[in-house]
Write a structure and sequence with these properties.
The complex is a heterodimer of chains A (379) and B (292).
Chain A lengths: L1 H6 L5 H28 L4 H6 L8 E5 L5 E8 L5 E8 L21 H8 L14 E5 L10 E4 L4 H8 L5 H32 L5 H12 L7 H10 L6 H24 L5 H8 L4 H12 L1 H17 L2 H6 L8 H11 L4 H36 L1
Chain B lengths: L6 H29 L17 H9 L1 H34 L4 H13 L2 H12 L5 H8 L13 H26 L3 H9 L4 H12 L1 H16 L3 H6 L12 H11 L3 H32 L1
Classes of the chains: A alpha+beta (379), B mainly alpha (292).
Chain lengths: 379, 292
């Protein structure tokens, strides 16, 4: 590697610095958005909206002029004028109530708790209940540049993402796993079967079949969806995961078979012949010789099918209706239309969907990149 | 010998082919048929024969459709320049440095593995007028807040994440292509005194031609299929259908407005455009290649 590098000529130090700077800049654009979202997923929406850049490893509060720990909320009154609410906290970051001052306990029914949980400004808040909260008009409680008091991060957004029955990302995961797992396994098997038949057998119409496969690569889901929707509905498969799965399998087979054909064609016949002489039949050879030898190509096909199926929104939108069946992509879209103002929840939802994919990607990235180049560079 | 008995062929080919026939080839043909008839409602049956009426409506009587077409067509050169072009520049740069190749490879590829829906949600958080990240930046810099998804700006703002997401994809393909160029070629070029940009222009790029053609074809055909990101960031082509793409417009016509015949016609336009673009790409690149 090093030799190769020098032979190509070492760029000038200045050029090299510039190259690293530009590459770093692009890396920043791919990393920063996720860091920003991760950071804000631990914040209350009111804080996301006002101060999204402060680190949320800790919750941010500040002390007002009297040294009391407060958090400020900027509200608008009916005339659009800015109004500042100030929330009081004890040293541990628990909201302070008049009746039980300093207590860590917070009545979940209290408007204060609701305020913290959902931070919807429109809620009426009987002020007599709270010493912790008082409204100032037109002047700030503290200078936003004053040193922050750091307290522990909040997990409310994640709790909401996992428990709100309208969101329930955990169930979404389950659905995604069933759907994409099933699709992936089926595609791997069916594509291997078709590729095996196409590379080993001589038969009439092989050429036509090959052209059909190439043509199928050019069919976008849009061009089949209406008739597919009708067939799925009349077969009683509308709003079922198997309905979506069948369509996804069919949609992925052409690509998968192309990759598998390229690979199986390179496998030597000798092993199959040896197995045949030992008395193995075609099916046995397929299962015991071809499939094990094709592991790396199968991995490629599997990974890509899984990513594609997990991320595919269009079919999920069209063929599913009930929330209980929605995979994560569809749920994310629901969240964005229903809770579009709850920034904390949205950030947490993005994190929850993205993190497993990133982990899988980091673990399998060698295969992913190898497969990508096998599929694209050769194809 | 082993493969002389062709009966197993049926077992291997029938299941996948039946699936593809039922859910791919048959609906593709029915879809063409549907576009030529008057169909109202998702389960309505074909009524009066319309011929090419739906296509005429698309091009002459429907400003939103023309806008969606324009948005999708403009997306193609944008994808070429920003996805493939930027991917190529990044690949050449990464190839020329010693350390960190692996790091850049992993990091640049991030956005691809993440669903477009999640990225759409993320960008809605950036673009939001009240409390969005960009407007917080503006406030920090002492500037006025900006309505990012305004009529003038919406298309650009929706296109940015689409382009950004795929740069890493082409970067990885092209970088692998560059790494596959035999070392001897560079060695002999170095002996002839070629270096830096000249080497890229006269050696790397010509040898990368086939990979570039593949990338270009993938980019333009992908541009026509854009769906997830716009459908999350700017719902229903908001504002005023200005950010509709052919895909999102097809969906809203067929499944929201339930103009099934019209939606089918739009989907055929998507296919035709895809085939044309792919053909054009191949032809252009082939001709360009002969000159080199």
């Amino acid at each position: 590697m090093r030799m190769r590098f020098f032979r190509r000529g070492l760029p000038h130090v200045f050029t090299r610095a510039l190259i690293y700077a530009l590459l770093g800049l692009w890396a920043l654009t791919t990393i920063f958005p996720f860091v920003w979202v991760l950071n804000n997923s631990f914040k209350d929406t009111s804080l996301v909206v006002n101060d999204s850049f402060s680190p949320a490893l800790e919750r941010v509060f500040r002390r007002d002029r009297n040294g009391v720990i407060v958090r400020e909320e900027v509200l608008k009154d009916e005339h659009g004028r800015e109004r500042y609410d100030r929330l009081l906290f004890d040293e541990e970051g628990n909201p302070v109530l008049e009746k039980e001052q300093g207590s860590a306990e917070l009545d979940p029914e209290s408007p204060f708790a609701q305020l913290l949980g959902q931070s919807s400004f429109e809620k009426s808040r009987p002020e007599s209940d709270l010493q912790a909260y008082d409204t100032l008009q037109g002047s700030r409680v503290y200078d936003p540049a004053s040193p922050a008091v750091m307290l522990s991060p909040i997990w409310d957004n994640y709790q909401e993402a996992f428990t709100n029955p309208n969101v329930n990302i955990l169930r979404g995961y389950k659905n995604s796993l069933i759907l994409s797992g099933g699709v992936t396994l089926s595609v791997m098997l069916l594509a291997a079967m078709m590729a095996y038949a196409m590379t080993r057998y001589v038969f009439k119409g092989k050429k036509a079949l090959r052209s059909l496969l190439v043509a199928a690569l050019m069919f976008p889901a849009f061009s089949t969806i209406v008739p597919v929707y009708r067939m799925i509905s009349s077969a009683g498969l509308f709003d079922t995961l198997s309905g979506v799965a069948l369509v996804q399998i069919a949609g992925n087979l052409a690509f998968a078979t192309t990759v598998m054909t390229g690979f199986i064609a390179t496998l030597p016949y000798e092993l199959e012949e040896a197995a045949f002489i030992d008395g193995a039949g075609v099916f046995r050879i397929f299962l015991r010789v071809i499939l094990p030898l094709s592991k790396s190509a199968l991995a490629t096909v599997g990974i890509f099918t899984f990513i594609w199926s997990y991320n595919d929104l269009f079919l999920q939108m069209v063929l599913l209706r009930s929330r209980a069946l929605m995979p994560v992509s569809a749920i994310l879209r629901e969240i964005s239309s229903q809770y579009g103002t709850d920034f904390g929840l949205m950030a947490a939802a993005v994190v929850v969907v993205v993190v497993p994919m990133l982990i899988v990607y980091m673990a399998l990235q060698k295969y992913i990149i190898k497969g990508l180049t096998a599929g694209a560079v050769k194809g | 010998m082993l493969y002389r008995d062709r009966r197993p062929l049926l077992v291997f080919l029938l299941p996948p082919l039946v699936l593809m026939a039922v859910f791919l080839y048959y609906p593709f043909i029915v879809n063409i048929y549907n576009a030529l008839f008057d169909i109202k409602g998702l389960i309505g049956s074909p009524g009066e024969f319309l011929g090419l009426e739906n296509f005429r409506t698309f091009f002459t009587r429907d400003p939103v459709a023309v806008r969606a077409l324009r948005n999708s067509v403009v997306m193609m050169p944008l994808a070429l320049v920003f996805q493939v072009g930027l991917g190529l520049v990044l690949a050449l740069m990464v190839d020329s440095v010693r350390r960190g190749q692996q790091f850049f490879r992993i990091v640049f590829f991030f956005p691809i593995v993440i669903s477009a829906t999640a990225i759409g949600l993320m960008f809605s958080l950036f673009y939001s007028y009240e409390g969005g990240m960009l407007n917080q930046l503006m406030t920090l810099m002492g500037r006025e807040k900006v309505l990012w998804l305004s009529k003038e700006r919406a298309y650009t703002m929706v296109v940015i994440p689409v382009l950004w997401q795929y740069v890493g994809f082409y970067f990885v393909i092209l970088l692998t292509g560059i790494n596959a160029i035999p070392e001897e070629i560079f060695e002999s070029a170095a002996m002839d005194g070629a270096s830096g940009l000249r080497r890229i222009w006269y050696i790397t790029l010509p040898l990368l031609r086939d990979v570039l053609i593949t990338c270009a074809t993938l980019a333009v055909t992908g541009a026509i299929k854009v769906f997830d990101l716009p459908s999350v960031i700017a719902k229903n082509g908001a504002p005023n259908g200005l950010t509709h793409f052919l895909g999102t417009y097809m969906h809203s016509q067929a499944f929201v407005a339930q103009n099934v015949d019209y939606g089918s016609a739009i989907s055929i336009i998507i296919v035709v455009l895809g085939v044309l673009a792919a053909g054009l790409m191949t032809a252009l690149m082939r001709r360009g290649g002969e000159g080199l």
